Design the sequence.
């Protein structure tokens, strides 16, 4: 149904009837009044598909009156002398009204069906999210609770080495839990459209080395960093950049085999900061690459947990910085995420990058 005001629907539906009637009147010498009835009925049917019930009923009534007055003999009068024409007029009027009512009911049924399908999909989506969240939040919480209970109950009998291991587990689980909560908050900010970058000078290598150090506590997978430029000071939003890299690194850690390695490369050219995050894992199924940045999308072959919001947040934050992100599989296995961000650099660096 076209989203127009009631007044606009009235005007358009009546105008269509008047245009059709005028054309038929001008060519009334070439075809009889019965042909005119079919053409007017066609116009009413089109209006029934496009508009709501009341404007259609008005146009159906108007078309019947116009057909009677201008086309059914005797013309220019509402009197019908021929019984056959009288029956045909009554049938036309009834068919036009029934057509309008039935078409309206069909549209309502289709709309109701779509709403039910949408509701079903929404319920399925929320179930998926809740199941994912329960897994993603329960795991670090269980680790924190178990480690804390052990420290409280066996504090005297535990060696310092064991205590330190438990403290490390609590710290790692807390960081992971915090990242999940941050992702949910970031997603709500993206949905609300309140994401506004605050540009400041950011030392790109320092930011990346900091993230590598933090992730080094969580994983044994090596994370390598290569920077083409000796110095790389760029004006951007540090929080946005960290969120982008955190999610890409975490995605690589969670979805690659044990012996995989992660590589981060940065370079600067033509006032653009290029960041490539790659791995030597299994890569992505080619038919699913176009969907990986969709919210809550998880690979069909994925056997691990995950909420499916990490990569959608990455794309949202990249676009908030007026940048672009592209994913492609490597020829030798694995994949790479290529990010391009507009870069404002310090004047003393311009000569170096020229």
Sequence:
């Amino acid at each position: 149904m076209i989203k127009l005001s009631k007044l606009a629907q009235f005007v358009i539906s009546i105008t269509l009837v008047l245009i059709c009637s005028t054309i038929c009147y001008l060519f009334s010498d070439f075809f009889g009044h019965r042909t005119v009835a079919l053409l007017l009925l066609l116009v009413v049917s089109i209006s029934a598909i496009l508009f709501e019930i009341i404007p259609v009923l008005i146009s159906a009534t108007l078309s019947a009156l116009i057909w009677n007055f201008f086309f059914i003999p005797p013309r220019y009068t509402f009197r019908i002398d021929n019984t056959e024409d009288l029956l045909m007029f009554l049938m036309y009027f009834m068919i036009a009204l029934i057509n309008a009512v039935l078409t309206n009911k069909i549209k309502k049924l289709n709309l109701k069906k779509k709403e039910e399908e949408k509701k079903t999909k929404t319920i399925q989506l929320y179930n998926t999210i809740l199941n994912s969240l329960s897994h993603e939040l329960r795991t670090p919480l269980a680790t924190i609770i178990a480690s804390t209970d052990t420290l409280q109950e066996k504090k005297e009998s535990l060696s310092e080495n064991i205590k330190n291991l438990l403290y490390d587990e609590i710290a790692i689980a807390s960081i992971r839990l915090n990242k999940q909560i941050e992702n949910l908050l970031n997603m709500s900010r993206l949905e609300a459209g309140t994401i506004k970058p605050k540009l400041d000078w950011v030392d790109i290598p320092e930011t990346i080395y900091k993230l590598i150090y933090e992730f080094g506590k969580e994983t044994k997978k090596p994370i390598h960093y290569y920077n083409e430029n000796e110095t790389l000071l760029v004006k951007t939003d540090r929080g946005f950049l960290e969120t982008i890299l955190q999610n890409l690194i975490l995605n690589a850690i969670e979805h690659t085999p044990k012996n995989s390695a992660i590589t981060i490369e940065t370079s600067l050219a033509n006032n653009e900061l290029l960041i490539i995050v790659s791995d030597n894992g299994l890569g992505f199924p080619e038919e699913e690459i176009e969907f990986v940045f969709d919210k809550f999308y998880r690979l069909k072959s994925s056997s691990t947990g995950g909420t499916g919001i990490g990569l959608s947040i990455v794309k949202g934050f990249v676009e908030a910085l007026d940048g672009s992100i592209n994913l492609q599989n490597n020829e030798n296995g694995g994949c790479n995420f290529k990010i391009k961000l507009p870069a404002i650099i310090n004047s003393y660096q311009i000569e170096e990058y020229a």
Remarks:
- The mean pLDDT is 83.
- The first helix runs from residue 6 to 26.
- Residues 200-353 form a domain with the Heat Shock Protein 90 fold (CATH 3.30.565.10).
